[in-house]
Amino acid sequence: KFDVSKMSEWATPIQEVTLGATSADGGSRKNTVTLGGENALPYYFDAEMPHRNYVTMDVFDMPISMAKSVKENYGDVINDPAEWAKKAVRDFNADMITIHLISTDPLINDTPAREAAKVVEDVLQAVDVPIVIGGSGNPQKDPEVLERAAEVAEGERVLLASASLNLDYERVAKAATDYGHAVLSWTQLEINAQKELNRKLMKQCNVPRDSIVMDPTTAALGYGLDYAYSNMERIRLAGLMGDEELTFPMSSGTTNAWGARESWMKESPLKQDSDWGPREYRGPIWEIVTGLTLALAGNDMFMMMHPTSVQVLKEITQTLYG
Amino acid sequence: MKINSPLEAYKFLPGTNCGECGETSCMAFASHLIDRSLKATDCIPLVNESKYKKKYDELVTLLAPEIREVVIGVGDNAISIGGDDVLHRHKLTFFNKTALAYDVWDTMEEADLVERVNKIQDFKKFYVGDYLTLDMIAVRSVSNDPEKFAATVKKVVETTEFPLVLCSFEPAVLRAGLEVSAEKRPLLYAANKDNWQEVAALAQEFNVPVTVFAPNDLDLLKSMAKTFADNGIEDVVLDPGTFPTGKGLKTTLNNFLKIRRAGINGDRDIAFPIMAVPFTAWMAHDDEVSASYWETVVASIFTIKYGDIMIMHSIEPYALMPQLHIRDTMYTDPRKPVTVDPAVYEIGSPTADSPLLITTNFALTYYTVESDLSSNGVDCYLTAIDTDGIGVEAAVAGGQLTAAKIKKGLDDAGFDMEKLTHKVIVIPGLAARLQGDVEDETGAGVMIGPADSGRLPGWMEQNWPPQK
Ligand code: B12
Ligand code: SF4
Q: What sequence ranges are listed for the domain CO dehydrogenase/acetyl-CoA synthase delta subunit TIM barrel (chain A) (predicted)?
């Protein structure tokens, strides 16, 4: 007879974090999304996973450079974030929308925070799914941008992306707690940095445990996915085994897969390589495999771009979820 | 492995520090035993001197990996599968990368057969200084006709050195295949609850590894594996069935998880390599692209979670490339930063007019750039700066790639800028912010190249030689 025991060391559940607020909770979302709550590695027989994985699709507040096969899907809405968001929910089955306010970067358009906040309002009007709000990644400007955005989104329980060690995370954290939002704790492929930032958010900024999601960084397939996978897997195992600084749900910038040349280049730059085949098929599967790998490491939420990738990743993760 | 510290392994060594193993001491050798970079057989006195016989035998037993290692094929193309000691790669590393076998079948026209085998054995994708390639051919009997099968196997053996999997549930068909390929040590696929006695006899007679197949029945799988092992057939591969969709897929994943966890935890009866058959995706999807996608998705799951060998069908590059890369991802040794020696490398035949390029000594970065240049016939000097094995962008952010480092790299390599007619250094696009500093530090002109080195050949056409 075959017999194997369950893992007794996995005794600490992952924190549940709910995003979005319905009218019952003072928001205007049709539904909420709950991440986390796991008692085991994902899809393992040791314990049922309480919530499925979710996909939030990227929307930008200005046209950006994108791989051709991604761009094709958004040509008609690229100048209108609200329409873009609608399309992602209506046609591509996005569970959530991430609005990236990249035009606020002083090196791009330096859009004032106040104006950027209007885009957030438009997106909240356009769709009724929970949303994530991202800055431009500029550490000087982001706190201000996220503060404004948090203010106009009060009551909607958005996820603010992101607090990180290289910017004034206290301001971002305060914007989240003041207006009832959750915060994305983003570090770069380093488990100790992740612990440090989470600790600071909890102890120094008093962010409640149910309002922290982690982004430990996603590196694409062939471009450091080995680091990203093991980093996430270690974080999740440590959480399950009781490290209270790491028991949070995780999010992945799966879109990073489009940075890998295998996903966007027309053909191999190397003559010795076998034919790479059509990039329209190569790109989406690059994003899918990158996401799926991290799903198996314990990632809960995926930030993605290509409709086919979203469809396949949702189908496979729901199949494994059961 | 039953021991996990060098001290424990040391007890079984001669303790003479004779140095025959190439290590300075027995203790140093012991630590290599624990990280599995050396084997007990590398200690010459331990193997040769009879007084150590008992210790040697004990040590070999203690060091044996929890999951058995099975060898398929012979000679340079032989492939080992299994041999793992951990459930998570960060705990040590995964050994023996998942073997990827692609199918051919015995109703194919000979010309098609040869063409397909060649496509499989010729596929290659450059990555970090080497080519990622496929491993094996799975020959399936569709005709169920022993003669046809034998003829197909024979043709495959004539066409390739790749190891084979012989696929049929009909013992007579398997025998016919073995008669023309046994000396290549193919893997038999498969013994099941109906044919196991005959297939076991074949494995024994021809001395080849064998797969036991018990779809979603771990009790049966284990009892068959145990029966085989008890009868001296230790080269066993387990196939618990691969169901490609719905609840079946979830169950399949959990069967893999259970088998491997039991094996690593010491249940010897089931501590064998596991086979996944993502090929089954073709039974669930009609069109070629969907089937290839789902096959790749299923293959990825079982590359990550404990599949040691897989049988697949699609040979479309958009399926093969991610399969090869996810395998490399999981089997890269997480303990080793992969680096190249810092130096100025000559690419092609550079002259005084050729560009001097800067990159880092992270192997992924260096080889990507190097191959972009050499395969496009660009003659140049490529400088690998010692960034502790960090890529360009992270090294600029982390301070391992600086103007001073670039100056030092060129000086240490003894590179004389004066021999260049142009006195210009080209830095990576992602290191653009170092431009001014590098000019000050080296006194040379500095040009900023493209962000991706794949665009260097095109960039050269536009920008080289530099305008005075
Ligand atoms: C893997 C990775 C790591 C790994 C690095 C492993 C390693 N051995 O390099 C680890 C975990 C260690 C790491 C750490 C850090 N990282 Co990091 N990391 C990445 C990641 C995910 C992939 C980088 C990579 O390997 N790319 C692939 C290689 C091949 O690219 P490459 O070296 O740049 O080479 C290409 C080009 O530069 C060009 N090229 C190369 N040479 C040449 C030469 C010439 C002449 C030309 C023209 C072109 C050219 O062509 C190459 C092929 O495309 C990126 C994010 C991402 N998805 O890109 C972040 C990233 C690079 N990291 C980043 C940061 C900030 C860090 C840290 C500082 C984080 C921290 N706060 O601790 C540390 C620094 C560590 C250190 N330096 O000590 C940032 C950099 C931001 C910035 N622009 O300043 C990034 C972009 C993440 C982000 N979005 O914020 N990181
Ligand atoms: S060969 Fe054996 S006895 Fe000699 S130093 Fe190495 S481990 Fe010790």
A: 16-265
Q: How many angstroms is it from B103 CA to the middle of ligand 1?
A: 39
Across the interface, whether the CB atoms of B300 and A225 are under 8 A apart is answered no
Q: What domain count does chain A have? A: 1
Q: How close, in Å, is residue A319 to chain B by CA atoms?
A: 5
The predicted complex's ipTM stands at 0.93
- The CATH architecture of the domain made up of B6-63 is Orthogonal Bundle (1.10)
Residues 422-441 of B with CB under 8 A from A: none
Identify the domain containing residue A305 by its residue range: 18-321
Query: What residues of chain B, 182 to 221, have a C-beta less than 8 Å from chain A?
Result: 218-219, 221
Q: Which residues of B are annotated as a binding site?
A: 18, 21, 26, 43, 359, 365, 389-392, 453
Q: How far A283 CA sits from the closest chain B CA (Å)?
A: 8
* pLDDT one digit per residue (tens) for chain A, 322 residues: 899 999 999 999 999 999 999 999 999 999 999 999 999 999 999 999 999 999 999 999 999 999 999 999 999 999 999 999 999 999 999 999 999 999 999 999 999 999 999 999 999 999 999 999 999 999 999 999 999 999 999 999 999 999 999 999 999 999 999 999 999 999 999 999 999 999 999 999 999 999 999 999 999 999 999 999 999 999 999 999 999 999 999 999 999 999 999 999 999 988 889 999 999 999 999 999 999 999 999 999 999 999 999 999 999 999 999 9
Q: If you measure CA to CA, which chain B residue comes closest to A228?
A: B329
- Bond before B465 cis per omega within 30 degrees: yes
B51 to chain A, minimum CA–CA distance in Å?
41
How many interface pairs between A and B have CB atoms less than 8 angstroms apart? 144
Q: What is the CATH number of the domain that holds A42?
A: 3.20.20.20
The answer to whether the CB of B207 falls within 8 A of the CB of B231 is no
pTM value > 0.95: no
Q: Going by CA atoms, what residue is nearest to atom 7 of ligand 2? A: B26
| Cβ-Cβ contacts under 8 Å, A285 against chain B | 293, 296, 318-319, 322
Tokens of B438: 């590098």
Q: Is A147 a domain residue?
A: yes
Query: Is A256 within 8 Å of A240 (Cβ atoms)?
Result: no
Chain B CA closest to residue A267: B454
**What CATH number is given for B343-463 in this structure?**
3.40.50.11600
Ligand 2 atom with the shortest distance to the CA of B14: 3
Put simply, the answer to whether B270 touches A2 (Cβ < 8 Å) is yes
Is there a contact between B372 and A296 if contact means CB atoms under 8 Å apart?
no
Ligand 1 centroid – CA A189 distance (Å): 11
Please indicate, yes or no, if residue A6 is contained in any of the structural domains: no
User: What's domain B69-331's architecture?
Assistant: Alpha-Beta Barrel (3.20)
Boundaries of every domain in chain B: 6-63, 69-331, 343-463
